[in-house]
Design a protein that fits this description.
Layout (H helix, E strand, L loop, with lengths): L11 E4 L10 E11 L7 E12 L2 E6 L2 H4 L4 E8 L6 E11 L9 H7 L7 E6 L7 E2 L1 E2 L3 H22 L9
Parallel strand pairs: 4-8
Antiparallel strand pairs: 1-5, 2-3, 2-7, 3-4, 5-6, 6-7, 7-9
């Protein structure tokens, strides 16, 4: 079960476009993430490079998602609770969505999976339980878990969608 130490982590982050992995970054490992590509009808698991960099004395792991999925950068949201019940999840996740600074194609995977329109790509990454304020660490998102997380993504995207368009958030029955 999650503790409340995730409350200190940044919930919302903006990831600006850059030209590849920074030269002073330390390459760590490949990490498996779930990707809902705009040009696919099904979500799948992809391996992406993970690197570390020092920010304000804290070793921060970053995923190299820019090319080809987020050429204009991304926004990401940290989730550690079920959005419907507000109960803690066993792990904490970061959901990356396109910044849409330029028009992005409609995400056919999101439309087919969730029956709602979405522009640009969507990526879900998983944090290690050992993450701390001194070290954020990503781990692989297993294929079987990614299939279960599709329901959570549907709930999260619905909440985001409703907040963006000023619609009421429906309470849990």
């Amino acid at each position: 079960m999650q503790t409340d130490h995730w409350n200190a982590f940044p919930k919302f982050q903006e990831h600006y476009p850059r030209l590849g992995i920074p030269s002073d970054a330390l390459m760590l490992k490949p990490v498996e993430v779930m990707l809902l590509r705009h040009d696919s009808l099904v979500a799948d698991v992809w391996t992406v490079p993970c690197y570390a960099k020092l920010e304000n004395g804290v070793l921060v792991e970053e995923l190299d998602l820019e090319d080809p999925w987020f050429p204009d950068g991304a926004y990401s949201i940290l989730f550690s609770t079920d959005p419907t019940t507000c109960r803690p999840l066993a792990y904490t996740y970061r959901l990356f969505v396109d910044r849409n600074q330029t028009p992005r194609p409609m995400n056919m995977c999101a439309y087919e999976t969730f029956d709602q329109p979405w522009a640009g790509n969507i990526v879900l990454a998983k944090y290690s339980k050992a993450s701390s304020l001194e070290r954020l660490s990503f781990i692989n998102l297993p294929r079987h878990e990614s299939e279960l997380m599709l329901n959570m993504i549907a709930e999260w995207l619905t909440i985001i969608w409703r907040r963006v368009y000023g619609l009421p958030i429906l309470p849990y029955p």
